[in-house]
Amino acid sequence: MSGPVASAPSSLRKSVALVWRTLRSMRTAIILLLMLAAAAVVGSLIPQIPNSPQRVAAYQLAHPFWAKVYQAAGFFDVFGSWWFALITTLLFVSLVACLIPRSRALVRAARAKPIHARELDAFPAFAEQQVALPPEAAAAGAAKVLRRRHYRVELDAGGGSVAAEKGALREIGSLAFHWAFLLLLIAVIVGKGTGYVGHATIVEGYGWTDAQFNYDGDLRTGRFFGGNFSGTQILLQDFQDDFRTSGIPMDFRSELTLAAPDGSTEQADVRINHPVVFNGIRIFQFGFGWAPIVQVKRGERTLFDGPVVLGQTTPPGGNPLAQPWTGFVKLTTLRPQIAIAVRLYPDATAYFRSLATGVPQPMIEANAPFMEYEVWRGKLLDNSLSTLDTRFMHHTSSGLIGKGWTVDATRGCVISGTSGAIPASLGNVTCPNGGGPATVSMSFPDLRQYTTLQISHDATVPWVLAAAILIVLGLLPALYVSRRKVWVRARPDGTGSVVQVGGFALQRKDRFDEEFASLVQDVIAAAGGAVRRESQEVSP
Amino acid sequence: MTTESWARLSSDAFNLALFAYIAAMVVSFAYLAFRKERLHTVATVIGVLGLVANGVSIVSRGIAAGRTPWGNMYEYSSLITFLVVLGYLWVIEARAKVRTVGGFVYAMAVLTMAMAVSFFYVGPTALMPALNSYWRQIHVTAMITASSLLGIGCLLTIVYLIKAPAERRALERMQATVPPPIMGGSGVETSDPDAPPDYAGSADDPVGSAATSRKIGLPPSATLDALAYKFIRFGFPVWTFGVICGAIWAQQTWGRYWGWDPKETWSFITWVIFAGYLHARATAGWKGTRAAMVALVGFVSLLITYYAVNLWIAGLHSYAT
What we know:
The structure holds two protein chains of two kinds. By secondary structure, chain A is α+β, with helices and mostly antiparallel strands. In chain A, about 35% of the residues lie in helices and about 30% in strands. Chain A has helices at about 1-25, 25-45, 55-60, 65-75, 80-110, 135-150, 170-195, 350-355, 460-480, 510-525, 535-540, and strands spanning about 125-130, 150-155, 160-165, 195-205, 205-210, 220, 235-245, 250-260, 265-270, 275-280, 280-300, 300-305, 325-330, 335-345, 370-380, 395-400, 405-410, 415, 440-455, 485-495, 495-505. In chain A, the strands form four sheets. In chain A, strands 4, 6, 10, 11, 12, 17, 18 and 19 form an eight-stranded antiparallel β-sheet that branches. Chain B is mainly α. In chain B, helix 3 packs antiparallel against helix 4 (about 100-120). Mean pLDDT of chain B is about 80; it is low at about 185-215.
């Protein structure tokens, strides 16, 4: 009965030991590294949900079968998939399994002194010479020479023996490099896990507060994020953009006033490449666009008053600066509901010149801006500000509205306002008898810009940076420091001694011969210089 | 001189360099085939001439654009060619005295330049603001230097993969016909990446490699392997540093240090493969041909990172056109 009981744990122990040994082997590490690379290849060739959700959706429409396979395999989110995590985990387990014994060995080696050797002539590099000084002094001299050459030296002067080694930094660097990856992984997981990133759209003169529902809809929070948004208030004082005449963007700048819940405030400019850190969040310049201020009234009752954030769709190959900006005003409280679709041309002069010449002209700055509008009545299917579903609506009227104008949206005629930049032929018809009480009037008092800021919170960025620095700092000695071991023995020989020097290199062996020859010369010189037996006999 | 004339000088020098490298390639291959000392001298002179022209092209482009001349794929390619030829002439030819691989290096230079002219040419212009950061300088400089170093290393590995089996076959033939020579038995198995890996016979054995090397023309495989390792060992930390600088720059520009953008992903893949190569060299049973195969895969990955991502995969690094 004792047989199986005794053997079961031992066979279990054996198989655990086998798994552990396999994990520790360099072969496993190489294979895991190559698997990681292969997984990343998949992630770069198949569109990824976190990077390009539209391309994933397009792929799903085009290849429904493969999309299903990819979806099941996690190929649309490789870097968030269970098997990518598994490979990474195995790689890190293998790494740690390898690092623990190596680190312990390093500590042991650092504590231990270099060990003396006896048969020096057995080493690959060996030299022997009679010298003038007695063994004790010769060994001390050799020790001094080796110390000067940055060896760790163990001197046994009485025995005339020196043991020395150098290059421990190689292993220290290698271990620092590998441990730093563990630090990197932990810092990334903690930082991403407890952080969040999203986009805020703010119109000039308006404010925004860092809270869940104020984000644009693409808010990404970490797995361990507790919902504590910073509550920071951001007020956009002014947005500046700077284009070259060719349409190349040169600079964007959001001039912000920041306020933390604790009352501290700060003025800050956020520019491309110049993010601002405030109250634990980082704020980056991300995008920009036009936001007309629009007032919609029925009679004297105000239905809408505020900025309309416009977006842009550029056909492939088109110049985005030559494209109009589009958006919607949705009046949900009316029955029937009303939606006004607007299309903004920020620069009337440039736009009409493109119509005349057939060459699209960039509309860089606001210059007699105007909008085309279309009024739809019926039932609104959603509250999206960037799309309009007209399936349950009918088109009632359309027209033009310049900045500073007021129009009768229901009839499509102008109540007040003129512009020299807009040709009169384009239907800016003046309403015959002003606006009646039942008409829906729209005015366009001002055109402003909005900025899109990326807001992110990641607490471990400094740790990630520290790990990255450690990786580079460790890598250099790990690849470039060479280990050497050298021993010196001096035995009495007449009044002087016979000095033996032996040693070997663990790396860069091709360079060691030269090093060793010069080392032997120095050791002999420090031991009183070479003495020939004949001359000793002749001398008095 | 005006901006236009600097730009013209840059193009002319670029073309001169391209033709010089083509000539140097032809003459170098001729030297490999016929082993006439004069051919080698001619190849070196033309190569140096091409290098000077290449350097003039880069500098004058920088003056024409009013910034450091590494802002787009065309300029990167020109700089990589310069560094590859410089690395070859300086390290391989002048210091290691290896003269027969020049044709392969010039071929790589010619292909890189030809790609640059046919796919990536743009005039010298100012940069987009997103590319306008001093991290750009550091990141791009590191990536270009690392690409050049890894490129040379991989090229030598390819030559090694041609040479090593030929050496092995020659050795087998010799063993079949003559009594076995005393092979300097490499009995000591070390796990040291610096140690010459076990080739057909032994790296320390002058009999096998010297005899075959004259016949085939290429340098002994041990030399090729040691040189390849030298370049990759230098290139790898520079690549690591470059990727980290890129992450710092991305943190500033895009608000995240890593987002698995295709260029980021591929630089990571390349890094992982070369890390695999360095580990493989330190592992018994992977040294030699197998490690060289890993480096070859790394080379393919390097090319994809450099070219394919910009040409075919959409992402944030789309500065190709």
